[in-house]
Amino acid sequence: MVVALDAMGGDHGPEVTVSAALEAVSSGDLAIALVGDSEAVMPVLAEHDAVDHPLLQVVPSDGVVEETDNPAMVFRSKPRASIFVCSGLVKMGKAHAFVSMGSTGASIAAATVTYGTMEGISRGCLGGPIIGYAPNTVIIDLGANIDIRPQQLAGFGTLGTVMSRVLYGQENPRLALLNVGSEETKGNELVKGTAELLRDSSLNFVGMIEPYDLPLGKAEVVICDGFVGNIVLKLTEGLGQAISNHVRKKGGNDALADEIDSMTNSLAIHGGGPLLGVNGIAVVGHGAAGASGVSTAINTAKFVYDNDFVGAQQKELTAFLANAS
Amino acid sequence: MVVALDAMGGDHGPEVTVSAALEAVSSGDLAIALVGDSEAVMPVLAEHDAVDHPLLQVVPSDGVVEETDNPAMVFRSKPRASIFVCSGLVKMGKAHAFVSMGSTGASIAAATVTYGTMEGISRGCLGGPIIGYAPNTVIIDLGANIDIRPQQLAGFGTLGTVMSRVLYGQENPRLALLNVGSEETKGNELVKGTAELLRDSSLNFVGMIEPYDLPLGKAEVVICDGFVGNIVLKLTEGLGQAISNHVRKKGGNDALADEIDSMTNSLAIHGGGPLLGVNGIAVVGHGAAGASGVSTAINTAKFVYDNDFVGAQQKELTAFLANAS
């Protein structure tokens, strides 16, 4: 298996990505295409005495997508940026997956355009366990799909169910809709419409879940639109930090404060993961990740490749749509 | 001033509401109409030797709206329920405000129908400081208005600005839109449309605020639709509880855990408040409130009456709409 690694992406660039690549190929069961500006990547490879490593290949690119670039527009101005060369390698069959710690928006755009999306899904979406107190609860979507319709949100339920099974080992994950009340008469039009679609499906839909219950792990898959999911992710982090500061000051207990931080910091809990709903493998990670975080992301790409994560999503989605129509 | 008090509302009913009424009238500057089933209210009044209290009057009602009733439908089946008798007293000019700890949905429905809403507002809305770490940050709407348009959300900005000035003493409150990014290109259609309306207004609009910054008090008024606001309220409570349990177990520090609870429990921080956007005074409180909580709610009704809170909202909203058109 060949992984195209965006060597320029992330806060630290080649210094970190090249180290991570060396770590990942040490097992001998995958090869890596290091995609980046040659003058940035080659010196770091030389430092590691790895210019001629048999499992590493440098593929030149030109420039990098910045967080300030508009993901939807940047391909026109920077078509040779590292992330687009990565997805291009997969398109040409020269790699089986790409991994990037760079702009999440650009990764989603690249994967969506290059791989195409699954039926009923209009854009790759993001999910993962982001509240440390509920380590088996995958929340989807975390911010990729902002204005959506019930059909799409129900689709996230199927993708999340597959994610929970394949990546988190849950046999029959409970699927819940994030809502402002437990009754099915409550909620916005999106939630009510989605509940109708899920009720008749073969998914293990257990109804509404209120935010009170998110940290209690009452469902393994929780779905919401990307606006709400991103609010949940960022409020968890912000409130966690406010409380850990409180504990640091009033309790004088730094170890406990650190524990609270790690339970509410999405990077610590879930450094990144595979995009869902696209017909190919793209693993996006947090920009701040260090070498071990990048190496974990590369291993995730290999794991989802070996376990046919993409095929499992397609199959489940097809079954859901056949049942719904 | 006469306050119509829903004596049946709340988890504790007349036992608590009658005590609170006695406490509130002890100042001598307001009278209370105790609205409730006579056989429930009179014995409690008798216990307190207050059957002939000159500032208390019992107004009979029949039944009470339960949390399980559908707020939009319950008026047909229980037209003589205490909350509707309360709003009716205000409508007839026999009281100047109503106060209820009962079903929030029924209070909103009663106030919306009886008082009518202000221009551009379709339903009474709820706001208040719900994160203890940011005691001067009013968040609106907390759950009354689920599916809304930019014009309405911008209206909440004007109402919140008045609330922050009148109730929380902020001279020139900063107004921010809750969003998933700080850039104005990010967000859903609702947020983007609202930003356009606010940018040209005379309000002190400071742009987007991300949930990270909610506990840091970076704005005095934060607006969002009622779905998102209710998610924020309930996640704050649920996550706060998960963390305080963590502190109780690992830190063994019960006092600190209690402090965390009180900073994240919306009842403790903000037991209730006046409905915004309706042409009259309605104060809704938390069902679990004890006598002092109910008494505070009654005093809030008097405060907003004395300070012409309703008139101030109407004036600000008219100015906003004149400027926007």
Quick tags:
homodimer, 325 residues, alpha/beta, 5-stranded mixed β-sheet, 12 helices
Find the count of extended strands of chain A (DSSP E, 2+ residues).
Answer: 11
Major beta sheet, strand line-up of chain A:
3-2-1-4-11-10
Give the overall shape of chain A. Answer: globular
CA distance, first residue to last residue of chain A = 38 Å
The percent range for strand residues of chain A is 5-15%
H/E element sequence of chain A: EHEHEHHEHEEHEHEEHHHEEHH
Mean pLDDT of chain A: 94
Largest interface: A-B, 47 and 47 residues
Low-pLDDT segments of chain A = none
- Determine the number of helices of chain A (DSSP H or I, runs of at least 4 residues): 12
Percent of residues in helices of chain A comes to 40-55%
Quaternary state of this entry equals homodimer
Largest sheet of chain A: 6 strands, mixed
Structural class of chain A: alpha/beta
Rg on CA atoms of chain A, Å: 20 Å
Helix-strand blueprint:
The structure is a homodimer of 325-residue chains.
Chain A: E1 2-6, H1 14-25, E2 31-36, H2 38-47, E3 56-60, H3 74-77, H4 82-91, E4 97-100, H5 104-115, E5 127-128, E6 138-140, H6 150-168, E7 175-178, H7 189-199, E8 205-209, E9 221-223, H8 226-251, H9 254-264, H10 266-269, E10 272-274, E11 281-285, H11 291-306, H12 309-324
Parallel strand pairs in A: 1-2, 1-4, 2-3, 4-11, 6-9, 7-8, 7-9
Antiparallel strand pairs in A: 5-6, 10-11
Describe the structure.
2 copies of one chain form a homodimer. Chain A is an alpha/beta fold and 325 residues long. Chain A contains 12 helices and 11 strands. The first copy, chain A, has helices spanning 14-25, 38-47, 74-77, 82-91, 104-115, 150-168, 189-199, 226-251, 254-264, 266-269, 291-306, 309-324; strands spanning 2-6, 31-36, 56-60, 97-100, 127-128, 138-140, 175-178, 205-209, 221-223, 272-274, 281-285. In chain A, strands 3-2-1-4-11-10 form a 6-stranded mixed beta sheet, sandwiched between helices. In chain A, strands 5-6-9-7-8 form a 5-stranded mixed beta sheet, covered by helices on one side. In chain A, helix 1 packs across helix 11, helix 4 runs parallel beside helix 5 (104-115) and helix 8 packs antiparallel against helix 9. The first copy, chain A, is globular. Chain A starts with a strand and ends with a helix. The relative contact order of chain A is 0.16. The model of chain A has no long low-confidence stretch (mean pLDDT 94).
